[in-house]
Design brief:
Helices cover about 35% and strands about 15% of the residues. The chain contains 10 helices and 9 strands. The chain is α/β, with parallel strands linked by helices. Phosphoric acid mono(formamide)ester (CP) binds next to helix 2.
Length: about 300
């Protein structure tokens, strides 16, 4: 029995296989409509979500399965003090697979050690978000046809941005990827990722506060939200929240085949006027998340 806690739990070959499956689901959805007949997914969301929870639910329904779960800790017995370990032990009796989001880093890992069924990390605090990374990778693959030889700009909250941390880990296994890290000084990428992933892997990276300076070099621009929920101090959030606002004017120097990604939700860091730019991929990216979650459920349930 396998769980997905960190994107590196999947080999490069397995990621390639998930992408092939997702592409096939997009082409031939009817082939998959009964693959999970009789199976149940439990969505245990202790933190708010729109895309991840609903795309997991849509994924299981489109595979012919069923969904149970809760969307906030307050409506579960966690509000009475039940531990993660006890919660997943019990939910394992009711479901074949669990998708869990939790504000505490490491909670899905603890859950996977106590669960009788596969656990998927649907985002743990400021740590990791591997299924968002699967959506990001499918988007990059469909836009660029490769993961190698890319200059990838990551912009915004690189400190608490779990989607950024997982995406850097995933791309650090491919050749000639150059990372451009664009953030205010207070929200730079944590040292443990710079040292353990980028420096140890011999990756080229460049840190800057200036998005416009680096715009012409980028093949991928991955925008992120400054996350109010990760700040201890509201004044710091207010000061930093509008550090970057992507507008059509700022894209004038960008490559014609730039791909603009964002895990969403956005709260102002991409102007609505960018949405009609053919380089804006973030709504496709949200759709692709459903297909990659379908492929992942099939893999973890060992459904062929
Ligand atoms: N990208 C993402 O995780 O969105 P939600 O928080 O809406 O699930």
């Amino acid at each position: 029995m396998r769980s997905l806690i960190d994107i590196l739990d999947l080999s490069k070959d397995e990621i390639a296989s998930l992408i092939r499956t997702a592409d096939d689901i997009i082409q031939n959805p009817e082939k998959y409509a009964e693959k999970c007949h009789g199976k149940k997914l439990a969505t245990l969301f202790f933190e708010p979500s729109t895309r991840t929870r609903l795309s997991f639910e849509a994924a299981m329904y489109e595979l012919g399965g069923h969904v149970i779960g809760f969307s906030e800790a307050a409506s579960s017995s966690a509000s009475k003090g039940e531990s993660i370990a006890d919660t997943v032990r019990v939910v394992s009796c009711y479901a074949d697979i669990i998708a869990m989001r939790h504000p505490k880093e490491g909670a899905p890992l603890v859950a996977s050690m106590k669960s009788g069924v596969p656990v998927i990390n649907a985002g743990d605090g400021g740590h990791n978000h591997p299924t968002q990374t699967l959506a990001d990778l499918l988007t990059i693959h469909r836009e660029k046809g490769r993961f190698s030889d890319l200059t990838v700009g990551l912009c915004g909250d690189l400190k608490f941005g779990r989607t950024v941390h997982s995406l850097i880990s995933a791309l650090s296994r491919y050749e000639n990827v150059r990372f451009v890290l664009i953030s205010p000084e207070e929200l730079v990428l944590p040292d443990y990722i710079k040292e353990d992933v980028l420096q140890r892997g011999g990756f080229s990276f460049y840190e800057t506060e200036d998005l416009e300076e680096v715009m012409p070099e980028l093949d991928i621009l991955y925008m992120t939200r400054v996350q109010r929920e990760r700040f201890f101090n509201e004044a710091d959030y207010i000061r930093l929240k509008d550090s970057y606002i992507l507008t059509p004017e700022k894209l004038l120097t960008a490559k014609q085949d730039l791909a603009i990604l964002h895990p969403l939700p956005r709260v102002g860091e991409i102007a609505g006027s960018v949405d009609d730019d053919p380089r804006a991929c973030y709504f496709k990216q949200a759709l692709y998340g459903k297909y990659m979650r379908m492929a992942l459920i099939l893999m973890l349930l060992e459904v062929s």
